[in-house]
Amino acid sequence: MRSDVNAVSIGLFELLGRRVLVTRESARKVQHVLDRALETSAAGVEIDLDFSNIEAITPSFIDEALHVVTEITARDEGKGMRLVFMNLPTRLSEKFVAVARAHDLVVTEEDDKTWIITRN
Fold it and tell me: CA–CA separation, 28 vs 113, rounded Å?
């Protein structure tokens, strides 16, 4: 978490109750939480999606999660949302980079369990 921004952390296991995130529907369930976080935040909010206790994720889940993010950032009215996926069960691979690229997003790996998602 950066110290110069407001931060909201969302525990995906607590929210979804699943250790394996496979479906697009699961990713879509995160949207209302992200919407609420952005509505109640000032400029420069950092949204941390915490994957603690998650054992596996699929490209379909990440694709839909990033679709949700692009929908929300299109409406964020210049607030400058920063998205961090933390405590991931897998390293960033080319398949996840390609999924992000399809949404005009860039994913970089901060360490072996943290991805930073930004606009291209």
Answer: 22
